[in-house]
């Protein structure tokens, strides 16, 4: 039985790293995409290879379609297929809406949203003919309910939710499931600049009385990639400890 292959964007740190690690541990071939975090990507690659897992790395700016196309082709060449695409790469910016520059807006939309379009469009060239595939898009609770001082970020993440729902309807006849994970407040380096008292306030606002971990999100992604989720598509799953309930 051939192993399944997962391409994970932004996989060198944080949530992406946790997803890549868990998928490798569960028998997937994993292509670790990175752009700026080369050291972190190579450290992850070396760690997983030393444990006998089938992994590789690829440097690509996923906001550029030419680089995305080459990356997906590389994945096919190395692992002879692509079964799971996890669109995780993204950036977070905080600014008053009136202070957001045109350049900052374009950067957030291009990195967070256009990248999902580029990678998905290319991956579907292989998934549609094989009549199978799993696409998992990482959004955010702020894509569900909006976040002040993060209008551009919230916009990009809300658009990912809309794209996932629409694409799920379109790809259903091809037996391709498209789902969205909208994480809550997760302990990653994105929280490094937040004061301890502010983090404690976030914990207190969370019914489960803790912040999320990257493993919480990775476990959700692994389920959506598995055969256990074959009748689930077009859904938004939000591991957020009850911070947002809709």
> Main β-sheet, in a few words?
7 strands, parallel
Number of alpha- plus pi-helical segments? 8
* Extended strand count: 7
Report the mean per-residue pLDDT as an integer. 96
Instruction: Give me the secondary-structure category.
Output: alpha/beta
SS strand fraction: 5-15%
Question: What is the terminal-to-terminal distance?
Answer: 41 Å
Q: Which outline best applies?
A: globular
Low-pLDDT residue spans: none
Radius of gyration: 17 Å
Protein name: 3-oxoacyl-ACP reductase FabG
Keywords: Lipid metabolism, Steroid metabolism
Family: Belongs to the short-chain dehydrogenases/reductases (SDR) family.
Pfam families: adh_short_C2
Describe, in plain words, how this protein is organized in 3D:
It is a single chain. The chain is of the alpha/beta class and 246 residues long. The protein is 48% helix and 13% strand. It is built from eight helices and seven strands; from the N terminus they run βαβαβαβαβααβααβ. It has helices at 14-25, 38-50, 65-79, 102-130, 141-145, 151-171, 196-205, 214-225; strands spanning 5-8, 29-34, 55-59, 84-87, 133-138, 176-181, 236-237. A seven-stranded parallel beta sheet has the order 3-2-1-4-5-6-7, sandwiched between helices. Strand 1 (5-8), helix 1 (14-25) and strand 2 (29-34) form a beta-alpha-beta unit. It is globular, with a radius of gyration of 17 Å. The model has no long low-confidence stretch (mean pLDDT 96). It comes from Paeniclostridium hominis. This is 3-oxoacyl-ACP reductase FabG. Keywords: Lipid metabolism, Steroid metabolism. Belongs to the short-chain dehydrogenases/reductases (SDR) family. InterPro entries: NAD(P)-bd_dom_sf, Sc_DH/Rdtase_CS, SDR, SDR_fam.
């Amino acid at each position: 039985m051939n192993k399944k292959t997962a391409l994970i964007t932004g996989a060198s740190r944080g949530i992406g790293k946790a997803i890549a690690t868990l998928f490798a541990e569960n028998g997937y071939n994993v292509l670790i995409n990175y752009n700026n975090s080369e050291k972190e990507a190579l450290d992850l690659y070396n760690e997983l290879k030393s444990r006998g897992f089938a992994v590789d790395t690829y440097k690509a700016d996923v906001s550029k379609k030419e680089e995305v196309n080459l990356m997906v082709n590389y994945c096919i060449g190395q692992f002879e297929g692509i079964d799971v695409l996890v669109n995780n790469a993204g950036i977070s910016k905080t600014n008053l809406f009136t202070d957001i520059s045109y350049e900052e807006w374009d950067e957030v939309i291009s990195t967070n949203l256009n990248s999902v379009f580029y990678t998905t469009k290319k991956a579907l060239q292989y998934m549609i003919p094989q009549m199978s595939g799993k696409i998992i898009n990482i959004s955010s609770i702020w894509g569900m309910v909006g976040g002040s001082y993060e209008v551009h970020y919230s916009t990009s993440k809300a658009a990912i939710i809309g794209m996932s729902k629409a694409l799920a309807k379109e790809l259903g006849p091809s037996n391709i499931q498209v789902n969205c994970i909208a994480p809550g407040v997760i302990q990653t380096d994105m929280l490094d600049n937040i004061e301890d008292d502010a983090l404690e306030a976030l914990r207190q606002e969370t019914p489960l009385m803790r912040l999320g971990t990257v493993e919480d999100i990775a476990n959700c992604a692994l389920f959506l990639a598995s055969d256990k989720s074959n009748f689930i598509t077009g859904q938004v799953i939000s591991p957020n400890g009850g911070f947002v309930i809709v």
